[in-house]
Queue: 2 jobs
Job 1
Amino acid sequence: MKHFGLSIWGDDNFIVQGDTVNVNYGDKPSLIAITEEIRQRGYKGPLLLRFPHLMKKQLDTLFRAFSKARKEFGYKGDFHAVFPLKVNQFPNFVQTLMEVSEPYGYGLEAGSKAELIVAMSHTPVGAPITVNGFKDKEMISLAFIAAKMGHNITVTIEGLGELETIIAVNEEFNADSHTPVTPHIGVRIRLHSSGIGIWAKSGGYSSKFGLTSTELLEAYEMLKRYGLIEKLRMIHFHIGSQMSDIAPLKKALREAGNIYADLKKRGASSLGAINIGGGLAVEYAQHGHMQERNYSLGEFANDVVFLMQEIAKRKGVDEPDIYTESGRFVAASHAVLVAPVLELFSQEYTAKGLRLKKNNPPLIEELYDLYTSIKRANAREYLHDALDHMESLLTLFDLGYIDLEDRSNTEILVNLIIKKAIGLLKNEGTDELKKLQDRIQEKYLVNFSLFQSLPDFWGLGQHFPIMPLDRLDEKPTNPASIWDITCDSDGEIGFDRNTPLYLHDIDVTEEEYFLGFFLTGAYQEVLGMKHNLFTHPTEAVITFDESGAYRIERIIEAQNLLDVLEDLEYDTGYIDKRLKRRIEESSLLTPEEKQETLGKLYLYLSENSYLKTIQAINERTETDKG
Ligand SMILES: *Cc1c(COP(=O)(O)O)cnc(C)c1O
């Protein structure tokens, strides 16, 4: 896995230069330099770095692919795209996205009232807004208000009840109006074909969403009856996220294309758009055999354009405008989570840690002999003996025959023997050895919360690329599992023999070591949970000026302790008063000590939940930096 699979998942966004991983843009700064500069400004704990140029790159790629396909096929319909807000609603993301997408007339997709408000306030007038998901009267009324502001908005109905509401709201808004304005209407169709993969539930006949053919015909009749058929503009489907294979999309396109053509021929003359939803996959794999996507964006665009053209031609209708709502594809690459390693757990297993006595139990003496005399020729045999002795020694401890020091010596010696044996036998690659690697894997305690920053790993087992930010000129040798700082045993990315991660053997008392978690810009932020009250990490937007120099902008610090509690509706005024009084009334403190303790308490309350440092030496480095 050269350079942690960067050539598989990196899409040329990052490069290894010397011993660091660098942004492949502008002056190509290293991620470690950016991280250190932010930390020097006093921000500690994990950092989320956003790169607007990577958002722009994804949009350029998407629009270029469709432009090329339309030109190649002489396609007459237009191409439009919207960003589905559920993928990332964070203001630093949305505002930046709207800035970089300006040349494209890129719009937003909303699936709830709050998202609709973001769309109404952030989409430039004229760029498309689409509204999906279940809607009540208020949400539909908001869409009418957006239309009256001049927005190009399409409300996609998910069922006939919503259409009835649209008809009622239309009465209310337009009956006495000088200039009646109604949003465009879209219909989400229930596909008989379905997606694949872990997100496949959005498509298919048992899907939560969409109208059956019978309901479609009924909707058509209703729209005619109420004089709204001219508002029917769009057919919509969404087959699910992270499509690994393009075949289900092609099936869905044929289905949707034929529905479009039939409704149009029947008399829906304003119908002119197919919205193919999202689902474009992102390559998260760090190992070749785990690759998640079997198509290119060019192939995807060609398939969409070709199939729509073919159906339109055969049925004798105009080629529809094409809309996409891909979110993961646009957002994933823009964000990198950087988190410091706080501790390595088996570092105590060094020969230095041995507490051998003048007279050791015989089995320990034997373990020590095995450790000092193990060689390639006897490695397997000695290894088995060592494991055997360990079992016996642990039993002796349980029975009270040996003490805690003996037990500690056992742990250390067996660990050292396993390590030596693996080194000696590494070219044999037997299953037994691989199993032993699990046993000596190094646990890296990392200052982040998996629940907050990688919830899809916790919920779905979604893998995200992980690599250290420096030391890349050295071969990493420790089979690594990553522990977060929550008190939850699920907060672990375990070592997996099929997709092994090796990290460097570092001494955190001597030097800092940062891990980057890549492709975390889609879904992770808002799905993140405040488990143990760890909050969204400190974030920063990294831009580049014309000369290629980077700038750190729009830093938003992670919430402080009292803000977190306030979010849970604690009365923080009461908490504040109570803590203060308890210090003031404490008989264990002198008046000066009370002052000092209060000062410390307030300092801590103003900071976030993430850990500062564990090792004393880091403490020194941090204060050196101010
Ligand atoms: C979630 C969703 C999307 C975005 O899907 P991605 O896989 O992120 O591209 C698009 N459209 C609808 C209707 C959705 O629900």
Job 2
Amino acid sequence: MTLLTTTSNARPALLGGAPAFTERLPLVRPALGRTDLLARRHADILASGILTNGPTVRELEETVAARLGVPHVVGVSSCTSGLMLVLQAVEAAGPVVMPSFTFSASAHAVAWAGGTPVFAEVSEDSLTLDPEDAQQTLDALGGTARALTATHVYGTPCRTEALQAVADRAGVPLVYDAAHGLGSVRRGTPVGGFGVAEVFSLSPTKVVVAGEGGLVATHDADLARAIRLGRDYGNPGDYDCRFVGLNARMSELHAATALHSLGLLDSALARRRAMVRLFWRELGAVRGVRGPTLDPDDVSTYKDLTLVVDQDECGLTARDLAAALGAEGIDSRHYYDPPIHQQQAYAHLPRRELPLTDRLAASVISPALWSHMTDDQVRGIADAVRRIVAHADEIVSVRGGVES
Ligand SMILES: *Cc1c(COP(=O)(O)O)cnc(C)c1O
């Protein structure tokens, strides 16, 4: 990656200046370190003849359980399948209160388990499920809700105490989509031990990667047994399936990749935290651009470097910023726009207005971030954002001044 030296008032590339990066900064690049060591482990697995759900999967499960301080961890084929199996096991075949501001799979898992998503707002500061709105949404369902789910979005831990109190009052299980949360900590407790279960993802955009894969963490031995059975079609081994399960097993090769990646997690977390701090320090005081709030003593994985752009203050929309960053050679993504309640797949659900979610979804942008990015690359992104916002008026006039 070549970073050109740009001065702090250089014109943005969108307005004819030189781009900050001559080689594009892709959104994510999985960090796998010594892939030669991983290849050796894969070769051993191939030679062993045990290709799925064997000793490597068990080693991964035990390693993660020890790290999280949670008694049961079950390896599955993806976070989506893990969530499907958990929601099936807790009999969530009815209304399930959940945020709309999350990845679509959070809702898909509910639907596949026979449930119906009922969307609630997130908190403006943290972007995680708002306990008060979740409470009101549950109250409005008059006791028919079957579960509550929440997402540690971008790795920011949810306000777990408040959400647990809400779930307890409604008498429903609380399930976490912890896709981004392997390494996050809420008030000293690792994410993974909250609610009835938490489900991690190991897909390639996450911090710990397996290629594809997921992990279900739970304190509940019966629930863990149900997931182990459910990931294997519901077949305990006698071919007399106890319920309609899935093939949601994890392969040995994926487990080995996850173990290798997990070994790099602590350094990746430290690096990501340092990069996010560097970004905000380098950005300095820019009006109308902030990050999601992290409560004191909480730890985020910083799965993403997320900016919330207030158009009124900054003059630009998140889409304007994305276009201008793109011209600088910096990829970005609008996680999560459109929010789930606005997606075609859920257009059949009863309409509930979620004005805060709509506004936040239109305001977020996650520029490129990966664990082995250099400080100069991070400075280049911060510098680009600052220069782009400084030229907000000109950029808006280039796109015609149309309010989006
Ligand atoms: C990535 C992601 C998922 C899906 O994970 P898979 O392992 O790909 O099934 C679910 N929820 C959130 C919030 C995600 O970001």
